[in-house]
Amino acid sequence: MRTIINAHQFLSLSASINYQLSASPINWRAVLALVVGNRLDEADNEIILEALHYLGEAYGQTKRRLGPYAIIHPIRAMALLSRAVEKFTLLDLLTILFHDKQEDITADRYPADAWRSLEVHYAALIRRLKPEDEWFLNERLEILAIQPGEKYYNYLGRMLERAHQTPELVRIKLADRLDNTLDLRMDLYSDKADIECYEMIFALLFTETRARFCVRPPHPVPGKINGARRLYQMFKNAVFLSLLRDAGLDRIDTACERLFATIARTSLSEAQRILQHIFMYHLQEMQDQRAILMDVMTYCQQGAVTRVTPTSATHRLDGLFKYRFDHEDKETRNRSLDELYKDKPLMAESALAFMAVFSSFLMDPDFKIRGIDAAGIHPDSAGPEA
Hints:
Hypothetical protein af1432, mainly alpha, 2 strands, 18 helices, 2 domains, two-stranded antiparallel sheet, single chain
């Protein structure tokens, strides 16, 4: 299945949008043309332009964790959705633009006067919709929002259950997740991660030369999201894609197939870059690298990546999902990820395991990870044939 965008194309798109957002005043019509082209009639264009104006007012100069303006996320997600579908509706675009509204745009984040102004602006925008579109938009936004106290798995399960009646929700969530995944790589310096990674692995396993891989640039400046936290995002993607497969929602239409494949491909590339980085800067002895490759290869061949494994004394990857990543409490999860970051051999093994997982999603239309459902993660001690 053809993917809709690669990392370098995404960075180019981000730069173009960010350039438009840096103008004063912002030309929202230029932003809209950049993102969706000339695919809307003028009446719908005007409503989307008003929605962009509203988001500009709501987000202001607020920035995302990695630095870009917060408003760039819904705009880019709309761009990704428009690339995936042949035809979209006004309702689709409004849903993707406002998919984080209930979490991001709340009264406690604004002075009273600013909040009243936002509420008046949004109400005026909604009045321009047909009554049925207003009803469906409110329904979709309610479904897409995580409710107070709701666990992530319960949220995904609830959303996917409703998606059987409203399949558009799957496309929206896939576009949202894809943007968050691509956004991890603001420091990208190569768009050939797959070629370079597999070349590196081949050289390690089949040759005695590694001259090309000994020539390396200086270590990148440490970012706000380190390798362990990137692996956590790969875990979230593996969970989401597995739940989609289990619900039979990954192939409901061509757009979903393309978005699903692009997330899997992007996640595979991210895991490859993590492995390359560790072997290039942290675990540089060939014998250590070979030992890790051979060990994880055997582990994967035994079917361990097809299920959530319990902890054991047999292999360090056993229990990775449940006991390294699956922590509801943020403080506990951060401690666990900090421990993982210090353990570079386990990080390399984890990256290889994720490479196997996302390759399987791409190559096997029936692949999913046993032990993941809407209730959470359940370690499966049975073997691959169970």
